[in-house]
Design a protein that fits this description.
Structural class: mainly alpha
Radius of gyration: 18 Å
Strand content: under 5%
Number of domains: 1
Low-confidence stretches: none
Helix content: 55-70%
Mean pLDDT: 86
Order of helices and strands: HHHHHHHHH
Shape: globular
């Protein structure tokens, strides 16, 4: 494997690990803010990637150059939220924390690229590539997790904001989650446009490239 290939793999591996680690840490941090220390007790309230590793989603796929992945879900027990925090509101904000953290990371990386360009600073190719990759990967992770398909964060958010009268309908929709995920992945080949295209366009707009 040549140096260029090593840089390319690192450009995918490092941002994916960072994005997944911050994503899960954000879930754990917000849950603790509301009084649930389950993640803390299990050693998940940390930015150490080793605590969040999934053998396939966090190690194998990124090492193979796949610019995506997943980590071990952070355990959340809403029954341990403080009395003044409703379970619904607490779960909604805890679920939203992960995607929001990735959006923040994407904007920070994009801002770094824009600032360097505005100041006439020439970033080294590896740094430039890592920042560009991190912008796109964090955007992709945030948008993907906001989809209302179980077990993604978006499904938990929708579940908490839906009126109770719609819960039975929502549960029936959720029972078809595997079909929904399959449809999500084959949609680009049918319609010629998918989430990846939208993410690339949004990333280009953020970075000004």
């Amino acid at each position: 494997m040549g140096f260029d290939q090593i840089v390319l793999r690192a450009g995918s591996f490092i941002p994916v690990i960072l994005a997944l680690t911050v994503h899960e840490w954000a879930h754990a941090r917000v849950a603790l803010h509301f009084g649930d220390d389950t993640a803390l007790q299990q050693g998940r309230l940390t930015l150490n990637p080793l605590a969040h590793l999934d053998p396939i989603g966090t190690v194998l796929l990124p090492l193979l150059g796949v610019p995506f992945g997943w980590a071990k879900p952070v355990p959340v027990d809403p029954s341990r939220f403080r009395p003044e925090v409703s379970m619904g509101r607490g779960m909604l904000l805890t679920a939203a924390a992960g995607p929001v953290s990735n959006l923040v990371l994407a904007m920070v990386c994009a801002a770094a690229l824009r600032s360097a360009a505005a100041c006439g600073v020439a970033l080294s190719p590896p740094v430039d590539f890592l920042l560009s990759s991190s912008t796109g990967i964090n955007l992709a992770l945030a948008i993907f997790n906001l989809l209302p398909i179980p077990p993604l964060d978006g499904s938990r958010i929708v579940e908490e904001i839906l009126p109770f009268s719609f819960r039975s309908v929502w549960n029936r929709i959720c029972s078809a989650r595997f079909a929904l995920l399959i449809a999500l992945f084959i949609a680009p080949s049918i319609f010629g446009f998918g989430i990846g295209d939208w993410v690339m366009d949004l990333s280009a707009r953020l970075t000004g490239r």
